[in-house]
């Protein structure tokens, strides 16, 4: 085999020309029937070599030859001009031949893919939220849900306890009690007598929580500032809104008799009618007291006027309703012994008066107020 080193060509034994270009040679082939490209590939017969180019590079080169108005056209219009509709390019894959061309991926396939991604994200969020919910409830525990409602500070602080029938318990901190106002005598349980009183002083019934809470603060201020009491007089107060406002609570004695429980109706019921919601709240409160063994199962319900004849409390209109209740006891009325005689109670229950006498407190204002105000 002879080799032409000048042209980088070699001739095979069969008379065919073998082209072996140098590393930097550029060879133009024409009318060749036997071409060897590289050491391993050999084509026998006619050979056609196609040139592939980067479409974006070629498009940019062609675009540079057009005037400026032509360049301002959109990319789609430009492709239509450069590559007419009779020319076609591969649509599958993203190689150099179709890089930069609009994707021919079917829109339905993209929509399905987006739907799958969205569904996966949705279920991930739902699963994460469910896990957080169960973790929080496990930490809180079932005891907080089933815990009995107790007054004072024994119930769950994140809830507003109620006695049923929408009668909420409004604690001292909720109606704005003075923080340092506390009586000291403990109340022994179970209590045998429940005293019913009222506010008096031609006081109308409060109709909302804000108004009733304001009334409670006024009563406490008057009891401490004018009556020399350590705290508001009664254990519980019943508002016209149907809620129960905690005074001294279940465990501290009231200012009337330290072995009784006092419940005060907010309002003057010598002048105004009590509301049904107040009687419903009274029933639920006392029923709860029996269940919690704060009250004796056979407790007696009496009006303040039955334990102190010089007062009209709790007013004629309230007293007329009170005597019709099944737990009312006629003690202290005509032909009956005084209330608490069987327990050794005095004939007149007035611990506040006894306290003032023992301590030499004689306030003329109290003489008038005690005949009309809460007793």
Automatic annotation (TrEMBL):
GO terms for molecular function: N-acetylmuramoyl-L-alanine amidase activity; zinc ion binding. This is AGAP005205-PC. InterPro entries: Amidase/PGRP_sf (IPR036505), Amidase_domain (IPR002502), PGRP (IPR015510), PGRP_domain_met/bac (IPR006619). The chain crosses the membrane at residues 114-136. Pfam families: Amidase_2 (PF01510). SMART domains: Ami_2, PGRP. The keyword Transmembrane applies. Residues 167-308 form the Peptidoglycan recognition protein family domain. The keyword Hydrolase does not apply. Residues 180-315 form the N-acetylmuramoyl-L-alanine amidase domain. The lineage of its organism: Eukaryota, Metazoa, Ecdysozoa, Arthropoda, Hexapoda. Keywords: Immunity, Innate immunity, Membrane, Transmembrane, Transmembrane helix. GO terms for biological process: innate immune response; peptidoglycan catabolic process. Belongs to the N-acetylmuramoyl-L-alanine amidase 2 family.
């Amino acid at each position: 085999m002879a080799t032409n080193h000048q042209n980088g060509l070699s001739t095979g034994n069969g008379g065919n020309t073998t082209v072996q270009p140098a590393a930097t040679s550029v060879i133009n082939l024409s009318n060749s029937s036997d071409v060897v490209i590289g050491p391993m590939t050999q084509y026998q017969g006619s050979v056609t070599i196609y040139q592939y180019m980067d479409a974006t590079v070629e498009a940019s080169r062609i675009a540079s030859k057009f005037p400026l108005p032509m360049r301002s056209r959109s990319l789609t219009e430009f492709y239509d001009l450069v590559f007419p509709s009779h020319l076609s390019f591969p649509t599958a894959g993203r190689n150099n031949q179709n890089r930069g061309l609009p994707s021919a991926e079917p829109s339905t396939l993209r929509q399905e893919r987006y739907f799958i991604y969205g569904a996966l994200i949705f279920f991930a969020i739902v699963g994460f939220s469910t896990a957080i919910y169960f973790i929080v409830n496990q930490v809180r525990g079932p005891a907080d849900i089933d815990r009995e409602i107790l007054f004072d500070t024994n119930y769950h602080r994140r809830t507003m306890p109620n006695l049923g029938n929408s009668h909420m318990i409004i604690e001292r901190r909720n109606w704005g009690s003075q923080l340092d106002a506390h009586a000291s005598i403990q109340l022994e349980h179970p209590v045998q007598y429940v005293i019913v009183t009222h506010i008096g002083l031609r006081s109308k019934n409060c109709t909302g929580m804000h108004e009733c809470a304001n009334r409670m603060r006024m009563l406490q201020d008057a009891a401490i500032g004018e009556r020399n009491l350590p705290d508001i007089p009664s254990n519980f107060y019943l508002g016209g809104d149907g809620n129960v406002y905690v005074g001294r609570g279940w465990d501290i004695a009231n200012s009337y008799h330290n072995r009784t429980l006092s419940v005060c109706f907010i309002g003057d019921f010598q002048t105004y009618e009590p509301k049904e919601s107040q009687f419903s709240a009274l029933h639920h409160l006392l029923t709860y007291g029996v269940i919690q063994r704060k009250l004796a199962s056979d407790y007696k319900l009496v009006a303040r006027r039955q334990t102190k004849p010089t007062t009209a409390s709790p007013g004629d209109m309230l007293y007329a309703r009170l005597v019709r209740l099944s737990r009312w006891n006629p003690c202290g009325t005509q032909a009956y012994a005084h209330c608490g005689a069987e327990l050794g109670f005095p004939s007149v229950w007035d611990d506040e008066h006894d306290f003032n006498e023992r301590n030499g407190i004689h306030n003329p204002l109290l003489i008038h107020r005690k005949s009309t105000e809460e007793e």
